[in-house]
Write a structure and sequence with these properties.
alpha+beta, Endonuclease - Pi-scei, Chain A, domain 1, Endonuclease I-creI, eight-stranded antiparallel β-sheet, six-stranded antiparallel β-sheet, globular
Length: 1847
């Protein structure tokens, strides 16, 4: 069975982001009212995951099988209350994951208010009024199916509606229903009397009505009346009938008020009712059935009723011109609908029936259609190579056609997937055989295969390679079906891949792959490589999420029951509206509307407060937490005592069992096992235990155990960088978990049994209060677990009873010896065995000691009885010394196991707890152990050839080793051959050690050293790998748990210990200090709520954020998340200076196509992106316009860089200045996946180059060595064909005969092994190695190549040397920039060389210096030549623009031009206001004049693409042609050139500043002066003088005069010069400080922001913009709740003020010395300060410095400083004594002392250099201590070093 859909489609396409699901403005408005009334204080801002998506009260919905208005239903349930009301007896209809109609339970209902609605009308007559953010399931015009907010809908979109609906059917009299149909259609009941009339012109219908009336109503008097001037009728007088009509509310009812009675709507009698009603009021018009009614309710009921039979009807309104009344027409059209009506309802009237049959024709394909997402269908076609019909090209498919096509397609898909599964299964097995086994069975194999024995020996020794046929024969004999694998490989290559694809991955030629797969090849290793590659490709297909998604789409199309109704009208309504919604868990939709429509339910207010939800308040939000199940085993220390327990038992110890709302419990006496930095198992303290409830969990089974946990609890795994956390939901079968086998230290060797001492002690009673445990007694206690029992006579006289088989002499003797040695009284007897009580086959040894018996009873059982199933290993045993724990296990194994000690021991027990205890005890005692059903297995570490505990995951280890590959002296691949070539998933630590011994450590780089150190740690680790076997989801519905392990985040748990990631440490701590404690206190003043500021929310983990969310829901009154962002049209600059709108960047960032931007640091990594509407955070958007004309729109709290630092838009005013970076513009980022290098064309070029070098083709070459590469490949192909049939010498002869060349035997041997050389092949491989063949036009490297190419054409030279040298002459600054570009491409250049030069120019002698670099890179050299760069003198050979540039995108063209002008272009010249001189000049010989002109024409065309005008000028100088391309001299043209192209390298920065000056100058003329001129002309007629106007507008008087004369606006004389611009405006040489000339508020907008890694900034529209503080890393539920303000660190006085306030309230005497001490130890952290104060207060009411330093385990700073000064003065012994005092008396750790020493460095009276040395020494010591070195020794060594250092 192939599982296609991972989750419901309806769920998949529901809104997933906060922006999609929240309408915060209205909800917040209402919640504020609640807070003002103080009735629901916890509702404000601590809202649930989503709010809002609602409907108006008149929306119809089917609830409990009845059509009702949603408002009426919810008002009944909520009693008019706004907000959330729980319900458990409501059912509605909705669609499931396959688009099928089902009935669902409603969990709660919701009522609210809003000011805005969207009214939607559809083609079929549907009319919906929903909130703007209500999602509706839509089929877009592009074929996409998704939930879309109402405000985003467009006319032409298709709305999902059901094809049929379900009701809970009830019994109803069919004849009575028919009678009602007639009555409602053409009947009338008099209001005052018992008269009923039925008026109809059809005699048969009248007769039928009369028959039914007579039958149904016994008192009926019936009379038919025929009238002359009106329609005949049936007159009925019946009290019973009228009373029946009256009950239904139909008596005297007008035609516009009638409805279908609800009892009939839900019964099977509905068809009889409809037939009768359509007989009366229905008819045939054109090609449709039409029924007209004056009742809108009846019309809508009819549409619902018809859907019960799958009949889709249209509702149409018409105004009757005679009476001006609105009538509602039900229209049934389309043949399939008409046929369904005929089959299920039909007409009784023959005339109508006949007409109906006449209009049923072939289906109209243009009706009832769905728009197809052709991209998904095509993706399936391309990925699975499925053949499709031509229908795929059509945009719209009819419903029936769609189902037919997709069902056929699914059959083909399933077949292909099954075939791929079979191929995968076949390819999982490697094709390599064990030649050692072949050697052992050589004779047998020779007999069975017919291959000579000596030939097989040659194969074994590697002297000859077997052909594939012979290899298969040998493999078959060994029981290995390789033929099946090869067949699978061939099928996959031909059917699902290609030789080209496989060849590309293996860096082989297509022809080689074909030869290996299709011929009788000898290259079995190559086949194995192909197998592994194909297996990887198969797995990629089967795990392709896009493919799975596309198949899910097809499955949805094939099985859905949706009719897509086109939207024809959308209107926004404004006013006050009450809105309603229902919550349907999991599927989140229901059917409702005036005509049935699929509606999304809200996820609003899931858990606004516990009092609203009762016991279910957590159900919908706590499932996000990561936790393990209650019965998960764990080994802990409580108050220093070891205990093997479960989380459920910890719950009983730490939580109040009667308060389920208590979710966190801070603990200070709990420790768990975890791992340290060296991967060693250690005890670590727990800070908090967390619990919450969930419905479902995962059970993951692995080798020897299982673990139960929530889907997003993280499990620690190993990757190439070390330990990483991976969510349980992402774990796959075959992954490796980490467990441990370690020797955990134990100290106990004595038991204190005093508490078990008998009360009445006599001389005969042996008292053993201190019970020494040696190896014998440990063994005895272990044996008790296996074979012991305890018995008492009364409350005294206890016995410890051992029952052993009478044949177990060794055990009996050993036990007797131990009992005697310990001096216990004993009694022996024989007894019956458990199998035969009569047969005395067992011996009992009874130790007669009540004290020991009481101890055993209390500690060896679980408290639920003393049977075998209740046995446990006592907690005290876990604390014993290691040798004693091992002896205990031996005793247990000797009594109750099979197998041999020191090998595999199987211990059986009925007690699950005992087995788990055994596994944990073994693992902390250095013994590998596993758990199975009723059995624990121990694998002792001695004497075993294999142990799982010595194994680690192979994949990450191999990745690490590959990073060291070049520094390994030896064949490490042979050592790991089973992992590399046979797919073994694990590798032993011994092999890692073996490889590490081969590493040349001295030659390792810093990064390689890190990898080496990591491998070294892993080779010695106590961790090892266990493979995941099975994963399942199980029902749970109970508490799950987690623990927080500060500064470690890991712990071991499980029935077999697995390393888990703890999830909540950071969150718990932050919540307690930042939110929880703050929220607990009452608000001050009249406002009944407070604001919570979260100053570190962007650093919280996801789990911490969830914890924050829970606490907010429980305590907080107000929490809004404040973000600062830009509007979507802001263009941000990428590192290569392409532009992209920020909204487009975020889309590409999410798709991982872009991840870097340009900011103050240069290139920076983007960590996160966010989008939302600024109304959500209550920040309006402002537009800023600068004096250069640059504009940007940003929220009021967004920051921009100014000379004075970052400033918010709110702070900025007109005439303030912001900094601008003149980034290039005009080249947008566009996806362009064309490759810049065509390998086929390059190979062709290399072939021609080979011929120039003297290589020859077949026919001209005399020997193989002379051949061009292409013909060598032909020889290779032929050699491989012959290799299976002939010897090497025979092959040589045939090749020489066939091709007429000489070839050596060595060459033949190499060719048989697939080895081929050749000039062309060599450089194609080099291009691939460098990755240049993968570079696409949208890649930054394409721009680098283009830029270098332009510069080299200008100032570069390709020499004629054999090595392929490239010379580039330029300034030193330019060369440094060029070298950086070359490095990015993997090209190494020489150092920069400077030389003195002398030459003549125009008759003048010129002396100076020149600088250049050379590049010896033949691949780059050949590539440049391939692109058209001439070798030798360009002035003779001419210039070319490479085709890939000429036909490339604007990006590569711009970079080419920048390089070209950077080399040969003139730098812009500017003086005062004017600029000129941008041109490109080249001197060439006459021979290349025309070619150069062509080149310049091409450059001119390129410039035109950037709207830059230029012209070409040719002149003669010294018999050479100076060809110039001159940029036309006007400011606007220059500005276009400088802002869109500029120069590469050194000239670039100056050119940008010139460009920005021009921009300001032109904007001043076009914007500012224009406005001044207009205002001046208006005011010139007034009283003001011309001089006053000039002063007012800061312009010369003649400017005003010129405007009055009507002259063109010119630049006034007082405008700043360029020199003034550089002095006054330029900041840091690259930024321009520009004045804001306009600031305006433009309201709320959709806004965007990004977060960068190194620097909180990015360039947008030239502005230096501040990014947000990681808002997108905050989970949506937090974003929907919080207002985050970033705070700077607290000042000392602020902390002091707060501490004094607290001390006063708590009645404490806080001394000045105590206050200073708290400030010192808290390091500016208020949380720490308050905690220290509270801890100190527990010891004394007087808080002085002594008590502060005591409770915080800190030394006085003066003592630390004194110790450091003593050391620096050379008084080492005194300094060391003080150090020991700090460690012993103050209890300080080495890390604490180092931290304080580091803080004191600045206060020491030593020079700066000594301070640097001291900081370095402290850092080195800290590292050594962290790595596990002895603290005292390291700190003493540090003091010694300081003594030597001196002052």
């Amino acid at each position: 069975m192939v599982i296609i859909m991972e989750k419901p489609w309806v769920e998949k396409y529901r809104p997933k982001t906060l922006d999609d699901i929240v309408g915060q403005d209205e909800i917040v408005k209402r919640l504020k009212k609640y807070v003002e009334k103080k009735s629901m204080p916890h509702l404000l801002f601590s809202g649930p995951p989503g709010v809002g998506k609602c409907l108006t009260g008149d929306t119809k919905v089917i609830v409990n099988g009845e059509i009702r208005e949603i408002g009426e239903v919810i008002e009944e349930i909520s009693n008019g209350k706004f907000g959330v009301t729980l319900t458990n007896n409501l059912k509605v209809l909705g669609i499931d994951e396959d688009g099928k109609i089902r009935e669902f339970d409603v969990q709660y209902v919701y009522k609210d208010k809003t000011n805005t609605l969207i009214k939607i009308k559809t083609k079929m007559g549907r009319e919906l009024k929903v909130t703007t953010y209500h999602p509706l399931l839509i089929n877009h015009k592009n074929g996409e199916i998704k939930w879309e907010k109402a405000e985003n809908l467009k006319v032409g979109d298709k709305l999902a509606t059901p094809r049929y609906i379900l009701f809970n059917e009830s019994d109803y009299n069919e004849e009575l229903a028919e009678w009602l149909g007639y009555f409602i259609g053409d009947g009338h009941a008099d209001k005052e009397s018992n008269k009923i009339t039925f008026t109809n012109g059809d005699e048969k219908l009248r007769k039928r009505f009369a028959e039914l009336t007579e039958k149904l109503f016994k008192d009926a008097k019936i009379k038919e009346r025929i009238h002359k001037d009106r329609t005949p009728d049936i007159y009925v007088n019946s009290k019973e009938a009228v009373e029946f009509i009256d009950k239904l509310g139909l008596r005297g009812k007008k035609a516009d008020k009638v409805r279908i009675p609800k009892e009939i709507m839900r019964s099977d009698a509905l068809r009889a009712f409809l037939r009768a009603y359509f007989d009366c009021d229905g008819g045939i018009e054109k090609h449709s059935i039409v029924l007209s009614t004056a009742s809108k309710e009846m019309a809508e009921d009819l549409v619902y009723a018809l859907l019960r039979f799958g009949i889709i009807a249209k509702l149409r309104e018409k105004v009757n011109k005679n009476n001006n009344k609105v009538y509602y027409h039900i229209v049934i059209s389309n043949s399939s609908n008409l046929r369904t009506f005929l089959d299920n309802i039909g007409f009784s009237q023959e005339r109508k029936l006949k007409k109906l049959l006449e209009i049923i024709k072939d289906e109209n394909p243009n009706l009832d259609v769905i728009t197809i997402d052709k991209e998904k269908i095509r993706y399936i076609r391309d990925r699975l190579k499925v053949k499709l019909t031509r229908d795929i090209e059509k945009d719209n498919w009819s419903y029936n056609k769609c189902r037919k096509i997709t069902q056929e397609l699914l059959k083909e898909i399933y077949y292909r997937l099954e075939e791929l599964k079979e191929i995968e299964k076949a390819l999982e097995e490697n094709i390599l055989i064990d030649w050692d086994e072949v050697a052992e069975r050589r004779k047998e194999i020779a007999e069975k295969t017919g291959i000579r024995s000596d030939r097989i020996l040659e194969y074994i020794r590697g002297k000859r390679k077997p052909s594939l046929k012979n290899y298969i024969k040998i493999a078959n004999t060994l029981g290995k079906n390789i033929e099946k694998i090869i067949d699978a490989m061939r099928i996959f290559a031909k059917k699902y891949s290609s030789y080209a694809e496989i060849g590309k991955m293996l860096n082989m030629w297509n022809s080689s792959i074909k030869i290996y797969l299709e011929s009788n090849t000898q290259e079995i290793e190559k086949l194995e490589e192909i197998r592994k590659t194909e297996l990887k490709l198969v797995k990629e297909i089967l795990n392709d999420e896009k493919l799975i998604d596309s198949i899910g789409y097809v499955l949805f199309l094939a099985s859905n029951e949706i009719y897509w109704d086109e939207i024809v009208e959308i209107e926004q309504l404004n006013g006050e509206f009450t809105i309603y919604d229902l919550h349907v868990p999991r599927y989140h939709n229901f059917i409702g509307g005036n005509l049935p429509t699929i509606l999304h339910n809200t996820t609003a207010a899931l858990c606004l407060a516990r009092d609203l939800f009762g016991e279910n308040w957590r159900d919908n939000f706590l499932e996000l937490n990561a936790s393990v199940s209650k019965d998960t085993p764990i080994l802990v220390k409580i108050d220093g005592k070891v205990k093997r327990t479960t989380f459920e038992e910890l719950d009983k110890i730490y939580f109040e069992t009667n308060d389920e709302n208590e979710m966190y419990k801070k603990v200070d006496n709990l420790e768990v096992l975890t791992v340290d930095e060296n991967f060693r198992v250690r005890w670590r303290k727990v800070s908090t235990i967390i619990r919450h409830k969930v419905d479902k969990i995962l059970r993951i089974k692995f080798e020897g155990g299982y673990i139960e946990l929530t889907g997003n609890h993280s499990i620690m795994m190993l990757d190439e960088n070390g330990l990483v956390a991976k969510k349980a939901s992402d774990i796959k079968v075959g992954d490796c978990f980490l467990s441990f086998v370690a020797n955990i230290e134990g100290e106990k060797d004595r038991l204190d049994l005093k508490e078990f001492e008998p009360k009445d002690i006599t001389s005969r009673v042996k008292i053993i209060n201190d019970f020494d445990i040696d190896e014998d007694t440990a063994w005895m206690l272990g044996l008790y677990v296996a074979e012991g029992a305890v018995g008492f006579k009364g409350k005294t006289s206890g016995q410890v009873i051992y029952t052993l088989g009478s044949h177990e002499h060794d055990l009996i003797n050993k036990l007797n010896d131990i009992v005697d040695k310990k001096g216990f009284s004993k009694y022996e007897n024989f007894t019956g065995s458990g199998f035969d009580r009569k047969r005395l086959s067992a011996k009992q040894i009874r130790i007669l000691n009540t004290q020991l018996a009481r101890f055993v009873e209390e500690n060896f059982y679980d408290g639920n009885g003393r049977r075998a199933r209740n046995k446990r290993i006592p907690d005290i045993i876990f604390e014993l010394k290691e040798n004693l724990r091992v002896e205990f296990l031996k005793g247990l194994a000797d009594g109750d196991s099979s197998g041999n000690w020191r090998e595999v021991v199987r211990i059986s027990s009925k007690s699950d707890n005992l087995l788990i205890d055994t596994v944990w005890l073994a693992r902390i005692s250095g013994i590998e152990s596993s758990i199975f059903e009723n059995e624990a297995r121990l694998i002792w570490k001695g004497g075993m050839k294999w142990k799982k505990s010595n194994l680690l995951p192979a994949e990450p280890i191999i990745k690490m080793i590959k990073k060291l590959e070049n520094k390994i002296n030896g064949n490490w691949r042979y050592i790991l051959r089973h992992q590399l070539y046979e797919g073994k998933k694990r590798v032993s630590k011994d092999k890692i050690k073996q490889i590490l011994e081969m590493v040349n450590v001295e030659k390792l780089s810093d990064k390689e050293k890190e990898v080496y150190d990591l491998l070294k740690k892993l080779s010695k680790t106590e961790l090892y790998a266990l493979v995941v076997k099975e994963i399942e989801i199980i029902d749970y519905n109970d508490f799950v748990y987690d623990v927080s392990v500060p500064n470690n985040e890991m712990f071991f748990a499980g029935n077999v210990p697995i390393l888990l990631h703890n999830s909540d440490e950071r969150g718990i701590d932050v919540i307690r200090t930042k939110v929880k404690d703050f929220a607990r206190t009452k608000p001050i003043g009249d406002v009944p709520f407070k604001i919570i500021f979260l100053d570190e929310s962007d650093a919280l983990t996801a789990d911490a954020q969830n914890a924050l969310r829970r606490t907010m829901e429980k305590y907080s009154d107000v929490c809004r998340f404040i973000l600062s962002c830009l509007t979507g049209d802001a263009k941000i600059t990428l590192p290569d200076e392409r532009e992209i709108k920020i909204e487009d960047f975020i889309k590409m960032f999410e798709e991982r196509k872009l991840k870097h931007v340009l900011n103050r640091n240069g290139e920076d990594l983007v960590l996160a992106g966010v989008k939302f509407n600024s109304k959500i955070v209550n920040h309006k958007v402002y537009r800023l316009v600068l004096e250069s004309g640059r504009e940007i729109e940003a929220t009021g709290d967004h920051k921009f860089l100014t000379r004075d630092g970052w400033k918010e838009v709110y702070e900025l005013k007109e005439d303030d200045e912001v900094l601008v970076y003149p980034a290039l513009e005009g080249v947008g980022f566009e996806v362009d996946e064309r490759r810049i290098i065509g390998l086929n064309e390059f190979y062709e070029f290399l072939t021609n180059y080979e011929i120039k070098l003297g290589y020859k083709p077949l026919g001209k070459a005399k020997s193989y060595k002379e051949l061009i590469t292409r013909d060598k490949e032909k020889i290779l192909s032929r050699v491989l064909e012959l290799s299976d049939k002939y010897s090497k010498s025979e092959i040589r002869r045939k090749i020489e005969e066939e091709f007429g060349i000489k070839i050596s035997l060595t060459t033949i041997k190499n060719l048989i092994n697939g080895k081929i050389d050749g000039f062309a092949l060599k450089y194609v491989r080099k291009i691939k190695e460098l990755g240049w063949d993968e570079i696409t036009y949208d890649d930054e490297k394409a721009g680098i190549f283009a830029r270098l190419l332009g510069f080299i054409i200008g100032d570069g030279h390709l020499s004629k040397s054999k090595e392929g040298r490239i010379l580039i002459t330029a300034t030193i600054n330019e060369l440094e920039g060029i070298k950086k570009d070359l490095e990015k491409l993997g090209i190494k250049a020489s150092n920069i060389i400077e030389k003195d030069i002398e030459h003549k120019l125009d008759g003048r002698e010129i002396k100076g210096k020149t600088s250049f670099i050379y590049i010896n890179n033949k691949a780059f050299y050949l590539l440049l030549n391939f692109w058209g760069v001439e070798i030798g003198n360009k002035t003779i050979n001419g210039y070319n623009i490479p085709k890939w540039i000429k036909y490339g995108n604007k990006f590569v063209k711009r970079e080419f031009l920048r390089g070209l002008f950077g080399a040969d272009g003139t730098k812009p010249y500017i003086k005062k206001y004017n600029i000129n001189g941008i041109k490109l000049g080249i001197r060439v010989e006459n021979i290349s004049k025309d070619k150069t002109l062509e080149f310049f024409e091409e450059v001119k065309k390129m410039l035109e693409e950037f709207e830059v005008e230029s012209y070409i000028k040719v002149s003669k100088i010294d018999n050479k042609n100076l060809t110039e391309l001159i940029v036309k001299a006007n400011n606007k043209n220059y500005l276009k050139y400088l802002s869109r192209i500029s120069y590469a390298y050194e000239k670039d920065n100056f050119a940008r500043l010139v460009g920005e000056y021009l921009r300001i100058k032109e904007a001043y003329k076009d914007i500012i002066l224009k406005e001044i001129a207009e205002n001046a002309l208006k005011e010139a007629d007034g009283e003001k003088s011309l001089r006053e106007l000039a002063r007012k507008y800061n312009v010369p008087v003649d400017f005003i005069i010129n405007q009055l004369k009507g002259k063109d606006i010119g630049l006034p004389r007082n405008f700043m010069t360029f020199e003034e611009f550089l002095k006054e405006k330029v900041v840091d040489g690259k930024y321009v400080s520009e004045r804001i000339i306009k600031k305006e508020c433009i309201g709320y907008r959709d806004v965007y922001d990004i977060t960068c890694h190194k620097d909180p900034s990015f360039i947008a529209n030239g502005f230096v913009s501040h990014n947000c503080n990681y808002p997108s890393k905050i989970i949506p539920p937090i974003q929907s709740r919080c207002a985050v303000f970033r705070f700077s660190p607290l000042k000392k006085e602020d902390i002091a003020k707060k501490l004094k306030e607290i001390a006063e309230k708590e009645g404490l005497n806080l001394t000045e010395s105590g206050l200073e001490a708290i400030i010192y130890v808290s390091e500016g952290d208020m949380r720490k300060a308050i905690n220290v104060l509270q801890t100190a207060a527990a010891l004394s009411d007087v808080i002085d410095d002594e008590i502060v330093y005591k409770v915080s385990s800190r030394a006085r700073p003066e003592e630390v400083k004194k110790m450091m000064e003593l050391a620096l003065d050379g008084k080492f012994m005194e300094a060391r004594d003080l150090l020991y005092k700090l460690m012993v008396e103050w209890g300080m750790s080495g890390e604490d002392i180092l931290n304080q020493m580091f803080r004191e460095i600045n206060s020491l009276d030593i020079d700066e250099r000594k301070k640097v040395e001291l900081a370095d020494a402290i850092g080195e010591t800290d590292f050594r201590i962290v790595e596990g070195a002895n603290e005292r020794i390291q700190l003493s060594a540090l003091l010694a070093k300081m003594a030597l250092m001196g002052r």
